[in-house]
Amino acid sequence: MPDPAAEPRARGAGDGVVRVDAHLHLWELADGRYAWLAPEHGPLYRTFTAEEARETLAAAGVGRAILVQADDTAADTEAMLATAEAHDFIAGVVGWLPLEDPSAFENTLGAMLQNPHFCGVRTLIHDDPRPDVLDRPAVRQSLGLLAAAGLAFDVPDAFPRHLGQAATVARDFPGLTVVLDHLGKPPRAGSDADMVEWERQLRALATLPNTVAKVSGLHCAGTEFSAAALERVWTAALEAFGPDRLMFGGDWPVSLLGASYADTVGTMSALTATLSASERGQVWAGTAQRVYTR
Predict the structure, then answer these.
(1) What is the dihedral of CA 136, 26, 163, 211, to 10 degrees?
(2) What kind and span of H or E run contains 81?
């Protein structure tokens, strides 16, 4: 992607911190994609445009964003790339490629590498009922190709089924940057035993130097969303990865199920308040720039 630091950007809350949102979604409801999206999703069941996103982010002091796939289709990836071409606040695109078809993956990857906005790959593995998706030989072959290309691999909603597999992938492909979306989805509404197990797996992943994590998507039905409520999760992530391997992700508009975008940014500001200026810079922008800049 083009270097976010090289572009004009908004600054938040008058604190001089450059902010890059590492996890933004957009979708056009009329396109008929996004099979997971239905009326029961309430405020999410509508079109979210790039212009609305730009205004929402700018109002919260966020200048640029990484656009992340929300559908396992080539059409979704092509739409995101077209959006990035038309809107300079989009710093990069994490798109979908067919992981289970290494030949098609290789051919499509070659084409995508011609686009400077394409900076990573993600698949909605949490929607796949098979427990061994990341262990399958074809997927492993494709991940090897991705590592050779120098692009990142985002893993969504990894706990409880895929967090251990993500660590195995990172271990087996040391040249591949594995990005843990949403801190693996800590079970904040579950039992203490569930949280202990999530922490154990998170720390195991973080021992591998080619892993990073997004502090994103932490809204959880039935639980409070505030800095105080997220203290345990934040402390575990910070101790495991350190600020130079963490990045902020707003997860807009999915985050609207739990809080406004401004509140999401405000909560992150509160969590990072005790960090040094340079450490805050890493969480807010530096890690994302390093991981997603080609």
Answers:
(1) 100
(2) helix 74-86
Note whether 162 and 137 are within 8 A (CB): no
Domains of the chain: 4-154+220-292 (3.20.20.140)
Q: DSSP assignment of 180-200, as one string?
A: EGGGG---TTS-HHHHHHHHH
CA–CA separation, 98 and 155 (whole Å): 15
> What's the predicted TM-score (pTM) here?
0.94
pLDDT tens track for 110-156: 999 999 999 999 999 999 988 899 999 999 999 999 999 999 999 99
Q: Which residue is associated with the tokens 């997603």? A: 292
Instruction: Tell me the sheet residues that pair with 247.
Output: 214
CA-nearest of 210, 257, 262, 213 to 233 is 213
99 neighbors 8 (Cβ within 8 angstroms)? no
Q: Are strands 90-95 and 64-68 parallel, antiparallel or unpaired?
A: parallel
Q: How far is C-alpha 203 from the chain's CA centre? A: 18
Tokens 């809204």, located at residue? 219
Phi-psi region of 16 (alpha: psi -120 to 50; beta: other; left: phi over 0): left
Question: What spatial distance separates the first Cα and last Cα of the chain, rounded to whole Å?
Answer: 6
Question: Is 29 in contact with 45 (CB distance < 8 Å)?
Answer: yes
